[in-house]
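Troubleshooting log. The previous structure file for this entry was overwritten by mistake, so regenerating from the original sequence record. Sequence copied from the archived sheet and checked twice against the printout by T.R.
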Amino acid sequence: MANETQNFLNNAGLGFNDVKYNFINFLKNQAEFSDYNLEGSNITVLLDILAYNTSQQGFYNTMVANEMFIDRATKRSSVVSLAKLLGYTPSTKKASKAKVLVTVTAANLPSSGVLTRGSVFTGSINNNEYSFTNTDAYAFYPYTFNSTSDPDAEENGEIVSYACGPVELSQGALNTISYNVESYDQIFAVPDTNADKTSIRVFVMNSVTDTTGVNIPWFLSNDLTSLKETSKIFFLEENSFGQLVLKFGDGVLGKKLETGNIVIIEYLSTAGSEANNIGSSDTDTRRSFVYDGDETLEVLTIEASNSGGDKESSSSIRRNAVRNYTSRERAVTVNDYEGLLLGSFNDNAAVRCWGGEENDPPYYGKVFVSVRPIGQTFISSSEKTNLITNVLKSKNIVGMNVVVVDPEVLYIHANVAGFYDKDATNDTSTSISKKIRDSLIIYFRKNLVEFGDSMFAQDVETSVKSVSSALRAVDVSFSLERRIIPTLGVSERVAIDFQNPLHHPHDGHQSIVKTNSFYIATGSGSHYIEDDGSGKLILKKKQGGTITTANSNYGTIDYTTGKLVITALKVSGFIGDQSYIKFVVEPSTSNVFTVRNTILEFDSLDSDALTIALTQVQTQRVVGGSGSVITKSSNSGSITTNPSSY
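Regenerated output below.
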């Protein structure tokens, strides 16, 4: 008699072979099949069918179970549906915005004197063109006047040109769709998956023959507690096809639609982040924006396009839905602030928030916020205003002021010393150097993104060594740079914090501070700053090839904390096309760290940001023995390359 415990199937594995051989073992333990050749008989076809069906059913059940939980779901439609239960609506594509000034000569002024809403502009970047439009109308006003000796020329109306603006342009095209209402609980879909939900405007007409309400907007509801039965509101969700859908009130929470009403939905179809930075490189002779259909209107860029975002990813929805549910759309803790800001930027940004008590110096009663959009360093002034007014103000604690500050940029310089075996490669030192440079640019771009990112020399050395099998050893060290933009002609106090201890083996050590040259007074020669190795900053003067000390106590330097202070920095001008002073120092360690809202950045356009020195070595075989030793070849030498030459 077979053991009863052996009459049960082993459910440990759901793979096809596991299931099939579990069936076989199960049948072999039955008295009827004890001497039956299950692997070689026709019954194996039946076992294959059963095993296949069981394996597929097991896989299906596993996937269904996964899709029931937001932290394990893989399909976007499942993640969106589960986020809806937490009261979270995913972010759509977000239109990039720019500010421009539109000018026109007096002779060509439009008869209406207005730049009508929905006018079409074209912006170009990297040989790609994008449509922009103004979602508000702007009136033209007198801009320039006839050049005349008459002091009352402006009052006399001698107008040469008109202007309107600053005009805010949004990237995309305005589209309108309408629906006939058949029932009050009808759902209305926006079929365009590129729609920007922040641009949606909704109007409800009484009927086809009664246009009452065509100019009265309905508003997106974000707070159920303030709704009445007459509130003209709508709700937004995302359906399983990735489309936005609109729902309206039921007569209790929001005004109920009536059969025969006409719902009109206007929205902006946008390309998202693709259209960012248009106008950032404009000059007096090169303009990125043009007005379509009328060459007499000239468009001047005031603020390059920015803040465009892509559709929120599934991973972002998972994070932000939980944050949203935890904070209940209220900003109380630091995590609440960061969650609200990340949701506002579709998770396409690095965000850092801290309380005023943690600031240096402390400011009690304030919350500091710093945002770095992916691919950019700073956000625009209009975006800062939007964060305070539209994102945080209504959710912030009463009495707590929000301050949006720019990220503090700590530029990193890499100094690479490499030793390569010329017999192990066909590459020249120049081509190896180019490979190192290209790989480091990619490495820094990938790893210097978030606030709080650190840089470790060992990781960089490993990355560099992987670019060529001929590299036998690599040594990497860093220098740190801060950029100060002084107010020309004004004496001001400057404090610079490198946030890392600086190299100082002993008092009187050689200077570790370097700056570019600048002017203090016209005709007085150029100046630069260094330290004396004992805690003081020195102002040096260079004139006619002679270097002298202009001020031996120009400021202080704390090597332990990495802080520099200049009590009275006064600059009258710069040499060349620079508009800032570069302070470059040597840290005491080969690793670099940051705090609060400081970000690390590598400026690939700066010729001083990367130095590569290659030394040629060769592998020398030992005659009569085993192994090898690496020695410098007789014609070896240090080969220093300048990355800017590539």
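Helices lie at 16-28, 43-66, 76-85, 314-327, 334-344, 381-392, 429-447, 457-465. Archived copy saved in two places this time.
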